[in-house]
Amino acid sequence: MSTHAASKDEDAHEDGVRDRPPAPRPSEPPTELTPVEAHLAQQLLSRTALGVFRLNGQFLAESERLARPAGLTAAWWQVLGAVMPEPQPVSGIARTMGITRQSVQRVADLLVREGLAEYLPNPAHRRAKLLAPTAEGRASIARIEPAHADLAGRLAAELGEEAFAETAAALERLARAMERVMETEEAAG
Length: 189
What we know:
Residues 1-33 are annotated as: Disordered. With 189 residues, the chain is mainly alpha-helical. It has seven helices and three strands.
């Protein structure tokens, strides 16, 4: 996609990639919940949110512990890990991680300053550079891998491999559903 076309397309970002396809339009209006069903749904939302908040805190604390010996922080590990498979623009990393572009930009600039990542030209967009790990950045991530693999193995043993996979799939479904709900709210104004 050319940068000219991307600037005309309000759904496109600086990297020339669309956020996501528009939310599908339901063929029929959603069914109204009874007061009892609405109350139950509200309780489930609260339980889910509190569980996710708690899990987020646990993941962040464990990520800090795992990243520290490699000279990284959890945030540095997240951003560097996002570009291990292939270089990405900051906006793409932010969308994948569900955080602001500005937050990712700050971390990306620190990683570049520390020699753990570098900015590369982006053939899809002149100004939106691609972030890529350096050899030193890859070595830092490699130092985390044994402890990361150990944690994954302990969680798989605690949950069972099938339940672990089901948990990951449920969280992915929840994230997609939340995106659709938020898109519907945004479209409604």
